[in-house]
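This part of the workshop introduces the protein records we will be handling. A learned vocabulary of local backbone shapes supplies the integers on the structure line. Getting from the letters to the tokens is the skill we practise here. As an example, a complete record with its sequence and its structure tokens follows.
=====
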Amino acid sequence: MFGIKQKIRQIVNTKMFPVDWGGLRKVKPVSAVFGLDRGMPIDRYYIEKFLESNSDYIKGNIVEIAENTYSKKFCAAIEKSKLNILHYSNVEGAKYIGDLTDTSSLPENEFDCFICTQTFNFIFDLKSAIHGSHYLLKEGGVLLATLGGISQISKYDMDRWGDYWRFTVLSAKKLFEEVYGEGKVEVSSYGNVLSSIAFLEGISSGELKAEELDANDINYQLLITVKAIK
């Protein structure tokens, strides 16, 4: 139970330093689609920061989930024949049709770099999917993955295949090291209390200042990043 001194401190803080809610004192978000209708979502801002900082690894035979937007943007020397798309169904542009949870559907030891952004959150059989990411890569190949930490549910994904997981740097490190091995996995996070609140509200990255977005607080892990080497 709280002591008397702590209770008095709480009362003083709430009376002397009341929160200015502004226009946020409501139960509906500014945007229900992650801010896509207002600009670049905050998690995508962080995804691009992560990929840009690791662009030296985006080379050789590259595969990306669902599209090759990031491959094109961050590959230093683009060889179009080497920018591949992996999709779970037969869609236009997808060279590889496969399921990360089923290695029999995947090419083995094929890629130098696997870009897998915001995907593992939506796969229930998570450990099999991590094994699948490892299976795809050549020896020395690199997985560049991003995972949702602090986030609202994605209704689009929930309605189609499910939205299952949220991560921390600790859970991500343990999960990926089980497959890639100790010393082969580097995890980090982006986010702070302001960017997390803004993301939950659906406020876009363009509506915050760069210094507000780039301030990093390990206690507010909006986006988790994983660099894992096979």
The mean pLDDT is 93. The chain has eight helices and seven strands. The radius of gyration is 20 Å.
